[in-house]
Amino acid sequence: MRHLIDPLDFSKEEVGELLDVADDIAADRFRYGEVCRGKKLATLFYEPSTRTRLSFEAAMLNLGGSVLGFASPDSSSVAKGESVADTIRVISCYADICAMRHPKEGAPLVAARYSGIPVINAGDGGHQHPTQTLTDLMTIRRRAGRLHHLTIGLCGDLKFGRTVHSLIKSLARYEGMRFVLISPEELRLPDYIRDEVIKANGIPFKEVETMEEVMPELDILYMTRVQRERFFNEEDYIRLKDTYVLDKYKLRTAKPELSVLHPLPRVNEIAGEVDDDPRAAYFEQAQNGVYVRMALIMKLLGLTLPAENAKEGTVC
Ligand code: NCD
To answer: CA separation (Å) from 107 to 6, 45, 162, 259, 315?
Structure first.
């Protein structure tokens, strides 16, 4: 049985295959409408979420399966003091696969140890968010036409942003990548990622404090929200929250083929006027999140598209 806890749990080849399936789903998702008939996905969300939880549920429903679960710990036995280990043992009796989001780093890993069903990490604290990374990789690959030789700017809360941590870990496996880390001093990328992932792989990078100074170099600009819920004090949050606001004026020096990504939700970091710029990719990215999660559920359940539904020349 496989789980997806860390972005590196799948090999590069497996990620490539998964993205191929996700592309095939994007071309016509209705061919996949019966693949998970009779299967159940449990969503165990101990922390708020809109996109991730609903995109998992939409993914399972698109595959013809059903969903159950809870959207906050207050509405489950967790409120009575149940451990993650016990919860997952019980959920294993009710569902075939589960997606778990938890404020504590490592909670989905603990769950996987006790689970009788595949566990997907849907975000653990400020640590990792591997399914957002698959979504990001799919969007980058579709937009840029490749997953190598790209200059990727990551902007905002690089300290607490788990999507950034997972994405860097994954992109570090591809050739010719260059990272531009854009953040205020206080929200710089944690040392363990800068040293153990970027430096250890000999990947060129630089750290800057403004997006204007690097805009013309970027192929991808990955914007992030300042993670209010992970700050120790509100004053620091208020001081830092509007450090970066991407608007049309700042985009004027960017490459025409730049793609702007954001895992969403956005607060103020991208002005609404950017939404209709062809370089804005974040809503498309949210859509890709459903396709990639469909492909992931199929992979972890060991299911493939029945031959009669495959189009000629498709990979499935
Ligand atoms: C991200 C998360 O939960 O880490 N959102 C998401 O999954 N789409 C980013 C965020 O909350 O800022």
So the answer is: 12, 11, 14, 33, 35
